[in-house]
Amino acid sequence: MRDTRESRLLLVLLIAIAFALITVDIRGGEDSPVDGARRAAARVFGPVENGVSSAVDPIGNAIAAVKDSGERHNRVSELERENAALKAKLGSDDRNRSKIRQFDSMLKTAGAGQYGIKGAQVIAIGAAQGFSWTVTIDAGANDGLKRDMTVLNGDGLVGRVTTVGPNTATVLLANDPDFTVGTRMERTDELGFASGQGDRPLRVQLLNGKANIKKGDRLVTFGSQADKPFVPGVPVGQVVRVDPSGGDLTRTIYVKPYVGFTKLDVVGVVVQAPRTDPRDEVLPPKPAKPKPTPTVTVTATPSGTPADASGIDEQ
């Protein structure tokens, strides 16, 4: 349509009519004279609006889904954090129970030997493949620790204190090659000197070359002058091998230590020595030997009489 005077007049007329219809519709409310026309328009344009809506809704749904996905991700992350916290708590409870068992065992050992001890925890370990086998504990001079004090745990001899700081100390382990401790055999009282061999059994030189030693015999510390660096009676280990006697002045045996040096946790430093030598009192009781089981021997008689079950042998 070309822009003429007539077309402009027609446009103004249509606008005026539209405003008039809007005014009449608003004032008429539900009785509006154009309500029928509005319903007819709704029937015509409603399907078109629905089609447009169905085309647009996936976009809205996608936006909502992304929003919900973020909320779900946050919830999953929160659940994962809660799960990790629960696992950590369970692990902590297991660790606490393990520590309680170790402390209880160590206190029993200290009580049997009448050792006054200061409890500590291993917080660092030296390089096992390096120059020495050492551990660092979380107790030091402020806790009454001094150099050359005996260190033990619930199983037996751990080592001796070599360096002391204000709040930490270094312990040389009994399996270190530079470690030597005087020992005494449980059954025969034979004396010797045990030296560490890393991850191998302790090597013990007995002073008596003709000592009667058997596999399974047990050793404890003999003790040092003024109880430093070793107090007496601390369990050391059990004999696993005895070298043949070759007529030498000394005899060599090999001892498996009671302590597991690669899994140390709770230890005790002996800050007060016992008044008397506990000798073998700290060693655990030996397991009882099983009693022989009686067996019944049944023999048949040639006459066909019932079997004689009177013979009873004990093996």
DSSP helix fraction: 25-40%
Q: pLDDT under 50 segments (min length 5)?
A: 309-315
Mean pLDDT: 79
Output the radius of gyration. 46 Å
The largest sheet is: 6 strands, antiparallel, barrel
Spatial order of the strands in the main sheet? 1-2-5-4-3-12
Indicate the structural class: alpha+beta
What this model shows, in words?
The protein is an alpha+beta fold. Helix content is 33%, strand content 26%. The chain is built from 2 helices and 14 strands; from the N terminus they run ααββββββββββββββ. It has helices at 5-28, 35-113, and strands at residues 116-125, 134-137, 150-152, 157-164, 169-173, 180-185, 191-197, 200-206, 218-221, 235-242, 251-257, 266-272, 294-296, 312-314. The strands form 3 sheets. The protein has a 6-stranded antiparallel barrel with strand order 1-2-5-4-3-12. A 6-stranded antiparallel β-barrel has the order 6-7-8-11-10-9. Strands 13-14 form a two-stranded antiparallel ribbon. The N and C termini lie far apart (128 Å). Residues 309-315 have low confidence and may be disordered.
Keywords:
disordered C terminus, 33% helix, alpha+beta
What is the topological layout?
Elements: H1 5-28, H2 35-113, E1 116-125, E2 134-137, E3 150-152, E4 157-164, E5 169-173, E6 180-185, E7 191-197, E8 200-206, E9 218-221, E10 235-242, E11 251-257, E12 266-272, E13 294-296, E14 312-314
Antiparallel strand pairs: 1-2, 1-12, 2-5, 3-4, 3-12, 4-5, 6-7, 6-9, 7-8, 8-11, 9-10, 10-11, 13-14
